[in-house]
Amino acid sequence: MTTLTMNPRTGEFLLSEAMGTRSRDQVSLAATAAYIPAGTVMAKATDGTWAPYADPVAAAAGTSTGTTSGTTDTTGTETTTAATTPSEVGVLYRGAQINTDTQPAVMVTRDAELDQVLLIGLTDTASSLLAAQGLILR
Length: 138
Fold this sequence. Notes:
Elements: E1 14-17, E2 24-29, E3 41-44, E4 50-52, H1 56-61, E5 71-72, E6 79-80, E7 89-92, E8 103-108, E9 112-114, H2 124-132, E10 135-137
Parallel strand pairs: 9-10
Antiparallel strand pairs: 1-9, 2-8, 3-4, 3-7, 5-6, 7-8
């Protein structure tokens, strides 16, 4: 029997948000060689594109499960970015397909309540950065 794995649904992690579009921003995602599911914690790179977040504290301690800024993991499937300031993190609203070019995306970046169990790549450092932007984890 084949086991089917279901990806997180668009915005499934979102419990509540500010009125209108205040909680969300239109952004550009960096090129990706792997599908990025909705609910992934993301960080803004110096070139202005967004990629999956890599915790700089965990990377320095050698315990990071991601990669550090601008590097590729051992399988060559994912580039991640380390963020150190609160304005550089967010949560991907809708999954992003594999693309060799930048692609538009929607990011939840402020004034919202999120289900932390459904967030992907969440670390203690990322939790603090998200909280500083008004993203409350429940």
